[in-house]
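Async update (no meeting this week)

Hi team, since we skipped the sync, here's where things stand on the single-chain job. The sequence we agreed to prioritize is pasted below, unchanged from the tracker. I ran it this morning and attached the output directly underneath so nobody has to dig for it. Comments welcome in thread, and please keep replies under the output.
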Amino acid sequence: MAKKDVQRGKALEKIQAHLLETGLAETGVRQLAAAANISDRMLLYYFEDKTDVLAAALSSISAKVVMTLSMAVPSDAKMSPAELITTAAALTRGDAMGPEMRLFVECVAAAARGEAPYEAIAKQIMEGFLIWVDAHLDIEDEGERRATAAMLLALIDGIALLEICTDEARGDLAVRGATTWLD
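Output:
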């Protein structure tokens, strides 16, 4: 691996940690370079521009989330919708993936405003999570499984949003209500 790629990787790891800690509020080139402990010029040597930095960092965070989900639930595990919402909500809330979920909510908001590169990143995040949900549903009919997966993703993301904007207690109530409704 070339030295440039190694240094780019190190910078990317620090930028990912910065984004998870601060969100999207501090994403100017100078702030991203400072987070990576490099100069602005070096940041732009490793990446084409700010959009390239953010796309690389957020895509990597997204891939880690998919890996975390995959490691937590065996690929052949099939669950009812109520079991899946309970499992997914437990994984995406709190310390395990709370910072990632807060960052993804910011990405979705930026995507809704039409900001690059967030539209493509939000779509990638949603598609990855939707594939994971679909793969773990114990529903034979493909059309019904896909529809249920989309509905569950909306519930899971809604629970995360509710908890981010209010508190953990409301998130708990939403999980309880969803599982009761789905049973």
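Quick observations from my side:
Residues 108 and 114 are 10 Å apart (CA to CA).
The mean pLDDT is 92.
Reply here if anything looks off.
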